[in-house]
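Hi there. Long-time user, first ticket. I'm pasting a complex I've been working with (about 669 residues overall). I'd like to know whether the download I got is complete or cut off, because the file seemed smaller than I expected. Thanks.
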Amino acid sequence: MRRQVAIVFAISSYDIDRRSTGSSIGAWESIVNPLQIMLFFIGMRVGFSLLRGSSRYAAGGSTDMYFNIVVFIASGFCIAFLFRMVAIKALSGLKLRAPLYYPRIKPLDILLAMALNDFRALATISLGILGLVWCFTWSFQLDSPGLAISVYLITVLMALGFGICLVFLGRLNKWITRIVKRILNRLIIFTSGIFFATFELPEYVRPLVTWNPVLHAVELFRYSLNNQYPIPDISLVYLIWCSLVLLGFSLILYRTNESLLLESNSE
Amino acid sequence: MPEFIPTSSSSTSQKNELVSSNRITSSLSFPRLTPVWRERFERFTKPRFLISAFLATSALYCFVIGRDRYTAVSEFVIQQAMPLQGSSASVLAGAAAAPQVLTSLVDGQYLQVYLESSDVKARLFPDGKQLERDYRIKFPDLWTGLRANTSLPKQLDFYRRQLSAAPQPLSGSVILTTSGFTPEQAFNLNNALLKQSRRFVNEVNQSINADQNLFAKKEVQLAEINLKAATRKLELFREKHGNLSVETEQATTSSFISGLESQLVELKVEEAALRRQYRDPNAPEVAFVADQVKELELQIRQERDRALSKDGRDLNALVLEEAELISDVEYATTNLQSARLAADNSRRESQRQLKFVVVLSQSQLPVGPDNNWRWQAFLASIGIVVVAWGVGGFLLNAMRKS
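Hi, the file is complete. Here it is re-exported in full:
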């Protein structure tokens, strides 16, 4: 077990090295790209807020009653994009473009290493942005730190489970892969609550988005920052069940079909 | 058995880590320490040991040393007796046409600030020493509680941490959560805060309504005084000029002069007829009628002069003056009617807009300690380790490689 953990860390380090050598900004590239997207999202959300006007007391209230807009987007982004990055990478195939076919390196190790790097990069961005906002506004609020870390780790597990399932899907056909990737991208961006809060949606629209467990993770993470943030139709139990089911199913799938991935990896 | 061969970079990093850890331990070790102690000391300074010690300490505090905390929760809503019809929405705000839920939400937000204010703290705990005694630190948990001789801001900060009032934007209700080191503390604080909420809503609401009513009554009194003054002026005017109404007087004079003029016309016609009958224009019959005509013309001129000239009764000016006074009286009467109507409306509205704190869920005496804080704190310490490892490792790695 300890050896396998060391292998995951070694692959993680190798992946960072590989990416840093191919980029002019070195190892910082893994945070610059997500940071660009996050800043773009923040700009979009702020723009929409300005267009909509200050409807603080619109039906059901507004998110700015509970969060700074930057904290709101960053909290959604760090959860939803962690899931997205792991899923998309898994869908693209677990290849590191290097002679890494050692008997001890399993495809799962590669996925874990890449997830680890993504987790580290997104956690760094989120912590940096939250720290900056807290410094500027001088108001620190983290009502349920235990819930926050639990939700984050559950999301990592769910992303891993989902990623393993997608690894197998990605082997079917490149067109299917492309279509799934696009659908996945849009679904995650538009239904994971990066831009909106569930309580802002009318009651009859909520079922269209609450099926998505990532939305539950995002909303619970926000709730952990501010316990007054309302989370109708959001459940921690649903999130835990989704994570366990996905992870369990994916591990069974991986256990029974590992050889397929090994062949794929050796191509 | 071939082991995993790390890449050149990973081997370099491992070497670097070894070198750096050796450097740290060598810098921390003392030359006088024996090799056994040095070895033990080096073992203690390893990150794995430090992390384990941190987590063990956290677990020890959270699950063994930490004092029990009890939580009492109640839920209430600030409700109006009748639905709004576009009038004042909030107890304090003047927003119009807001739905009932938002009204309650806005009131809940005001209430949230009020309950956390030093004013309420001073009402509930007038004696700071008593607060310190109630929430004093107890062995073995030397971290939680209120120390002796704490400053007022620290006491207020501590008091604020014992309660949480959360307005719910979807239902408009307010969830009031209080905590304490004993079940009674949490329960009593919750009940006391509910009383304060009722007091806040009733006091503010009723004082606003009372102010509105008082204002309306004052307006009625003012209008009555104005009406009385205008009526008195008119009466004085009429008394001064010895008539009931100048306008009637003017009409009477006009009809009197008109009567004289019609009589004059008849006499002139008769005179003309007589002049045709008699050749002598100075015949007694003609002269008699001509004298009558002259007298009548003189009489009419005198009557007109008396009615209109400044030396006479000057009825035209008097009519204008009287009309002004009458319009003043009419205006004051209308004003009084409006003021009475407004006062009546204000009284009715103030009763209609009375707000009440409706308790949806009364707090219960907690039967067991709330362990949520223990898990939150322990998981937070795990989170600190995970985030420090994730973020710190990433930053160190990135800095080293760049």
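A couple of notes from our side: Chain A has one domain: 2-12+21-266. The radius of gyration of chain A is 19 Å.
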